[in-house]
Design goal:
This protein has about 170 residues and is of the alpha+beta class. It has a single domain (about 1-165), classed as 3-Layer(aba) Sandwich (Glutaredoxin). It has helices spanning about 20-25, 40-55, 55-60, 75-85, 100-105, 155-165, and strands spanning about 1-5, 10-15, 15-20, 30-35, 65-70, 90-95, 105-110, 115-120, 120-125, 130-135. A 6-stranded mixed beta sheet has the order 1-10-9-4-5-6. It has a two-stranded antiparallel sheet with strand order 2-3. β7 (about 105-110) and β8 (about 115-120) form a beta hairpin. The longest helix has 13 residues, at about 40-55. The two termini are about 15 Å apart.
Length: about 170
């Protein structure tokens, strides 16, 4: 197991800026973290984020304290996206500069799509700041022409938890 990167996140709450740390999100909790290339993009908006939101109670029943969505987008974008999709259970984490994503070794160049640097699609189970299990989509590379989705799906994480919870 390895630790999650120790970084600060610039969040926007109740009209003001708040700085949160990796410890704020991960210390003393067992969480599901999932990352995706970008807010408002088709697979992310139509499948991945709504799938995690709809599976939230299942995760809680399986011993997960929180479910987090992280993306290399700023706080305004992440908050607007959550509002657009009526997300109330999954907590959105803005990684605007990609610092956390870089530390997870998941930053890829998506300049071919005009995105610049973004996250490769993955999910992780994090237990008290330690990555317990990674679920990385296959084919990670810069300017990948494919957008694989399955390994990091909520259904796959639930299956893992059902078969590996103590």
């Amino acid at each position: 197991m390895r630790a999650v990167p120790d970084v600060e996140f610039k969040c926007r709450e109740l009209g003001g800026w708040v700085t949160k740390t990796s410890d704020d999100y991960f210390r003393g909790k067992r969480v599901v973290l999932f990352s995706l290339p970008g807010a408002f993009t088709p697979t992310c908006s139509n499948k991945q984020l709504p799938g995690y939101e709809g599976s939230y109670d299942n995760f809680r029943d399986l011993g997960i304290d929180e479910v987090y969505c992280i993306s290399v987008n700023d706080a305004f974008v992440m908050n607007a996206w959550a509002a657009e999709l009526s997300i109330t259970n999954v907590e959105m984490i803005p990684d605007g500069s990609g610092t956390f994503t870089t530390g997870m070794n998941m930053l890829v160049d998506k300049d071919d799509k005009g995105f610049g640097f973004r996250s490769w699609r993955y999910a992780a189970i994090v237990d008290d700041c330690m990555v317990e299990k990674m679920f990385e989509e296959p084919g990670k590379e810069d300017n990948c022409t494919e957008d694989p989705y399955g390994e990091s799906s909520p259904e796959n994480i639930i299956t893992y938890l059902e078969n590996n919870n103590d």
